[in-house]
């Protein structure tokens, strides 16, 4: 009993500290006059220790990005370019299965504006963002910049001035330095990943019919044409370095054309994803033998003539000739790498091409140093085409990731998890049949038997295909996590035939209800849920949540999924989940100005956020309460994020027992 008392006491102390209006981000704003008509609006955010909020460009499908809303631009002022922001930290979210870009410690934003109305006295800006620690908070801040001038601007929220010069644990300079270091670590980790993937892709390109036969031919040329072995080795090394220079120049050109900072933003656009889906399908068709992608013969002829000049220039053009002649095999791989690297932004395309070209160049240099090794090389033959076709199947499978991205961004639900997995099962199943010799393609040699290596590869692909099949019925498929759409983006979000018991597994849903996490009956409207609770005389679990709330999903995935908790949620309470980040517009006659905050309530999310702030004096999510059928609070204290299943069960039981009394 003593241990139980202290456990409950600690839980209530935690929840008491969370049951308040939280404001973990303090803002300081200023305006800088650039000319008589141009002004730079500056936003400087200081973030409470351990909290974070998200970049404007954090990918769709994860937490909510920061949004700047510039009011009254028509006829008063124009925005010059986009709102810029300081360095962010990239972190992979296992819950949403996407990279998320977040700020910790501090963040800076700026927007250049051109005033077109000479009588304009001020510019009003609204900032929406989601701050997270163990809870996530939807924040809406309003700023007003006085024109002209350089004075700091007051932040207003809830119609009260907020002190934007709150004490900091460490200096702003230290915060910026710390965040910069963390960001650089994440960037370096991502660049190493790109380099390694590109390096192994380069080795795959070596094992294609366009490149592999060139190794002994080229090395023999250098060793025979050179006056001595040292000269041959030198020429082969220059040849390898030239290959690297050519491909790195391609990566540099991509970065230069699109801009290092805009590549990542480009990767999240619907148009980008759809275009590259088509491009990768095109590449896959080429590898599978539908046609060959070749550069104009005139290019190769001109380069060959330059290669005859001899010396370093001649060797460079020999390397360029290799790149052109082998393009039908290397082009699709290079294209895919460029697409993947572009999604990372920055100098990733350059790093990707460095990894790819290093793998291509390395054999030419090594075999020039050790010519005897060439005797151990396997002979060219039909196996080279098998490698090429296998790459085609991989290209085809990878293409559908981009189509999935576009569908997720638009939330069309045309390409849900089951559809994605069905296509991957078909693609990898066909690849397995090809490796077993049951399918032949245009450029395949007659096959009387398959090698042991091909058999093992076929068994591996077949095993992977079988592994994916249960995913059609809701299996998590952790090996390929991040490729298919998330579990909740499917025709059957809780899985077909999922367990857990309870009345919500069958029969028609009550009026206004939805199938929530794990098949729990959930209401997204407070009044609908309250009416149903009265009808069946059960207590209410009121859940303030968000679509992009990470810890809300953790509670649902790890706590609500427990057999004991799930039974309670399905059988003993009525769940009302109010999403504070729901962007659906309210009807005009339902919009209002909050008496508590003075903010205009325009969306369903605004409505539930205002309801939480007004009635419960809290703004964090997740936030749980047990209510009776009249809406009165039964919980001694609210509950928030805490993955302790036993503690959550005790909290639920406490409220339910009070209702029964």
Write the layout of secondary structure elements.
Blueprint: H1 2-18, E1 25-33, E2 38-47, E3 52-54, E4 67-70, E5 77-85, E6 89-93, E7 98-104, E8 106-115, E9 122-132, E10 136-146, E11 155-157, E12 160-161, H2 172-206, H3 214-225, H4 229-258, H5 262-267, H6 270-287, H7 297-307, H8 311-325, H9 327-342, H10 348-369, H11 382-410, H12 417-435, H13 452-468, E13 513-515, E14 521-523, H14 526-536, E15 540-545, H15 550-559, H16 563-571, E16 574-579, E17 592-593, E18 600-601, H17 604-616, E19 620-621, E20 623-627, H18 645-660
Parallel strand pairs: 14-16, 15-16
Antiparallel strand pairs: 1-2, 2-8, 3-7, 3-9, 4-9, 5-8, 6-7, 9-10, 10-11, 10-19, 11-12, 13-14, 15-20, 17-18
Tell me the β content: 15-25%
Cα-atom radius of gyration: 30 Å
Number of discrete domains = 3
Number of strands: 20
Continuous helix count: 18
Major sheet size, sense and barrel closure: 9 strands, antiparallel
Query: Terminal Cα separation, in Å?
Result: 22 Å
What kind of assembly state do the chains in view correspond to? single chain
